[in-house]
Design brief:
41% of the residues lie in helices and 25% in strands. It is an alpha+beta fold and 68 residues long. The mean pLDDT is 95. It comes from Rhodovulum sulfidophilum.
Amino acid sequence: MIREALAALPAGEFHLPDAVGPRWDELWIGEKVGLGNDFLKHVRQGRFEGVEDTGRKEHGLHVYLKTG
């Protein structure tokens, strides 16, 4: 789900809900928190090539950068 969503995003900054799209609103809060934590951990481990953690938050959400 995440890899396909990331592939469809243009380069630039994004929040995880932007990448997931409308499906994000269908998730329970616990699923959102778990998915967000796992995504951040995997981004920091380099498991998503071309995606970086900016180290910033906006509106309570981590800001990521897709570089290519």
